[in-house]
Amino acid sequence: MSESNTTDVEADTDELARRAERAALRLANADEATRDEALRSIADAIRERESEILEANAVDVEAAEAMLADGEYTQALVDRLKLDATKVEEIASMVESVAEQDDPLGETLAARELDEDLELYRVAVPIGVVATVFESRPDALVQIAALALKSGNAVVLKGGSEASESNRVLHEAIVDATADLPDGWAALIEAHEEVDRLLELDDRVDLVMPRGSSEFVSYIQENTQIPVLGHTEGICHVYVDADADLEMAADVAFDAKVQYPAVCNAVETLLVHESVADSFLPDLVERYEDAGVELRGDGRTREVVDVGPATADDWDTEYGDLELSIKVVDDAYDAIDHVNDHGSKHTESILTEDAETAETFMTGVDAASVFHNASTRFADGYRYGLGAEVGISTGKIHARGPVGLEGLTTYKYYLEGTGHLVASYSGEDAVPFTHRELDGAEWTPGALSTR
Fold first, then answer.
1. Does the pLDDT at position 3 exceed 80?
2. Complete domains list, the chain, with CATH
3. How many angstroms separate the CA atoms of 106 and 325, rounded?
4. Spatial distance between the Cα atoms of 204 and 207, rounded to a whole number of angstroms
5. In 3-state terms, what secondary structure has residue 137?
6. Between 355-364 and 332-342, two packed helices, what is the crossing angle to 10 degrees?
7. pLDDT tens-digit profile of 77-123?
8. At residue 35, does pLDDT exceed 70?
9. Measured between alpha carbons, how far apart are the two ends of the chain, in Å?
10. What's the CA angle centered on 404, arms 401 and 410, to 5 degrees?
11. What is the pLDDT of residues 6-21, one digit of tens each?
């Protein structure tokens, strides 16, 4: 890129960020009814523009299938990219479900009396300007924009180039449907140079949320001073314990892989207690193979069933497809060690009827979500009742697991007084603080004067 083009990209990105910052400050003051009405307008626009959305998506899919034939894309990527009429309706319904969620803003998180008529409130507020870089799923753009709007945040969206046509139409529908909202509240960027410039704007962008591989998230973290909330790969495990109900375990393990293998909460490694491997694996392997799953196993697994050999790399691979590795382990502690060595801190599941073993596993593995007798596929913002999600955070700071509306808020401290002076609480005649919790108190502007 020439120096003049670089300058143009920087200037354009700077202006986009300035507009987003101004929009965020105004959007933070938009009441819930305004935000919900805008969300319903987005849902209507998506339904009205279904044909246009599907035509754009068909262009993306055709290009992606050509890349698949050349070996540059995976089938999982193509599957995530595809939209049809049913999915378009699901996207519109998702936006409406976000509108129906409780307002995350203005909630009093804590209230404390410091002294008589001197009260401190901690109140939920938007983060501000949120930038997100995500993968091939076009519905991710709408999910993220809807959650940003409901939580009062401006958002800068960067989707994968493989979904560029779909993303443009969806973004246009969103912007057109929310013309009454602050200009610039939802921006779309496409070039890598724009992302690189955006990462430099820590004075205007408040949070970056990348969704992709560990390497990609690490790149973002290493190239910005902006706080990063990373959604990385999902190397998820299901552990079948000695005390599992084996019929139930087979159903859960099958669901976790086959129900939709292209997503980050699908299982990639099945761990099986050595005492049940002989009775459990043969029927399940046959069931997997009938469903087209390519299987690999460690040495002890291959003594029981005829599958391909697993390599060291398999334990650290997110297949995102009908592929699965199997390992026979000594006990729950061996399973925990394997998960902590190779997992991505996304979602893990133990199948057992022994409550003590379940507790040992659930407290012992390091993951954002840990399940007992349930498929890893439940790790999802919609299924958690969050309405939707901007991603699944595998870190531990600010938000963890599926990040919905609450994960897009922070808080402010509001202090209400009647002319109080710090001097009154200093020196020999200092007035003591009461520091009394105000259970159930809610902040409203002029909280003291309105009583």
1. no
2. 2-104+126-223 (3.40.605.10), 236-389 (3.40.309.10)
3. 47
4. 10
5. coil
6. 20
7. 888 899 999 999 999 999 999 999 999 999 999 999 999 999 999 99
8. yes
9. 62
10. 100
11. 678 889 999 999 999 9
